[in-house]
Amino acid sequence: MADPLDPSRRALEQVFYPASASDYREQLRLRELEQAAVPALRDASGIGDEALLRCLAGLGIRVETLAALTMIPIVEVAWADGSMDGRERDAILAGAESAGIEPGSPSHGLLRLWTLDPPAPDLLRAWRDFIDALGGELEPAERARLADKIVGRARAVAEAAGGARGRRAVSPEEERVLQSLTRAFGVDA
């Protein structure tokens, strides 16, 4: 049933927010969405760092795309040399699917976008902050296992393009990113 006050509400909104202020209205709407995302991200991730949660929400990360955040290191390695090889893209998407990120899901869609264009540097920094916060919640052995898993997947993607050139080596740029990822977990390389 239609709200009888809706036309009046819209008319008041038009007066209160003139057409030239549509950007301002959109900013308010986005801020409300970000604020609503913080508690859901806290519950889903187990992270209590409000500043980090607000940062993730501000970057567009939601519960339904949180899984894609775990794939950032793999994407970062693939883009390390400035381009993403088709074999790297295929390896990323196949790895995502084997990790439970279903094709057609919001996380898979976001990951697919990151294979077409590199993620923003802010997102890469947010991932490192996310891992730092998560690492504080893990025992050293758990943190090392997580590092092995994520850095191992990233190395496999880096080797996917190297293997296409007849070798299993990674480029120097990819190796630097892999070492940086290992350090982000606070474990020895």
Task: Please write out the topology.
Layout: H1 6-16, H2 22-45, H3 50-58, H4 66-69, H5 72-78, H6 86-98, H7 106-116, H8 121-137, H9 140-164, H10 172-184
Would you summarize the structure shown here?
Helix content is 71%, strand content 0%. With 189 residues, it is an all-alpha fold.
Structural notes for this entry:
With 189 residues, the protein is mainly α. It has a domain at 63-184. Helices cover 71% and strands 0% of the residues. The chain is built from ten helices and no strands. The protein has helices spanning 6-16, 22-45, 50-58, 66-69, 72-78, 86-98, 106-116, 121-137, 140-164, 172-184. Helix 2 crosses helix 3 (50-58), helix 6 packs antiparallel against helix 7 and helix 9 runs antiparallel to helix 10. The longest helix has 25 residues, at 140-164. The radius of gyration is 20 Å and the shape is globular. The N and C termini lie far apart (62 Å). The relative contact order is 0.12. The mean pLDDT is 79.
Structural class, from secondary structure content? mainly alpha
Q: What is the H-and-E element order?
A: HHHHHHHHHH
Percent in helix: over 70%
Average predicted local confidence, pLDDT: 79
- Shape descriptor: globular
Give the low-pLDDT segments: none
- Enumerate how many helices there are, as a single number: 10
In this structure, how is the largest beta sheet organized? Answer: none
Strand-residue fraction? Answer: under 5%
Record field, number of beta strands: 0
Give the termini distance in whole angstroms. 62 Å
Rounded to an integer in angstroms, the radius of gyration calculated over CA atoms is 20 Å
